[in-house]
Amino acid sequence: MPLAFRNGGFAFGIVGTVISGIIYAHCVYLLVSTSRKACRRSFVPMLGYTETVENVFTHGPRGVKKYAILARRCTDVQLLLNSYLLICVYLVFIGNTLKDIVNHDFQLGWDTRVFIFLAAVPLIFTTQIRELKYLVPFSAIANALIITAIGITMFYILKEPISLENRSMWPAWNTLPAFIGTVMYALLGIEYVLPNENKMKRPEHMLGNCGVVNVAVCFITALYTIVGALGYAQYGDDTKGSVTLNLPANEALAKSTQLLTITAIILSTGLINYVPTDIVWRKIQHKIDPKRHNFAQISFRFGMLVLLTAIAVGVPELEPFVGLTGSISGGSLVVIIPAVIDTVFRWPGGFGRMNWILWKNVLVLVFGLLVLGIGTYFSVVDIVAIYEKE
GO terms for molecular function, please (predicted)? Predict the structure, then answer.
């Protein structure tokens, strides 16, 4: 988030983060409420993200029915891209963090790529966990570690006097897409909303004024705004891809934040890997002899980790990967798809007085297209520039 504020400016960063949080919460509401209405209409107990998309198109207006399978496949692709890009980001982050710690302590000059390979080793085991109920405790521990790391990071941020002198208040035209992409990356997680709601004893608690979504989004938006604003105010243009990389490399307490964050990421990677693996496995399992299912699962999970490690090694820079992931996944999964399925489900007459809901959805859709198109373009340009420089 301090990186986001570096790209967006202090004043615009605060306003933009709050607005992004509101948009995110609204789009989650669109997804969950549409999924519930689709379930009631089709007399099914629950639907996942892709199943909701297919169901809405299948029972939608005549002109979109034929695109139901295509819509589901496009959603599957977006979910795959989101999860696998996140794992790439995690590998690059762990590699850069380990490089700072190990090279400083042992006076080594190892390249970041070496540490990315080392980072992949523990992920071999966490990505092999197949049951969601076993992954949730790991995620809970990871959250506790992250909160602890944030507390220590804030201690260092506030340790020295903070000044807004020489700090940008507003973004430049070429840094605005990076700001939006980074904020959307920080807010990612919409793909887990429906699976979690479907596992809840009281799924009605997901929405509502004091529901899970609103409480969670308010909390993380406030947390991200505080960390982003204060982190950028403290480090300015020297702010790195993760603020933990700005902390003193020679102090044990500062190192602990990096180690806590690395541990949290390793523990949470299994959950990140759950969605894409489940999507692919459901499509290919019928083609494999049931006696070889276990071996096939192990091989596929390991093979994807090798491929993702190779991608991370190819571009071992954190900032453009964060922007790319946020732009692609935030623009499509978080904004575009929820707005589209809500519009299709309501068509042609469920948009309220003067069709205000339709106009609102159009504005949300335009915002998502801008995030997806412009943000992805600038992120790819940055990645290509890094690759050519090397």
Answer: L-amino acid transmembrane transporter activity
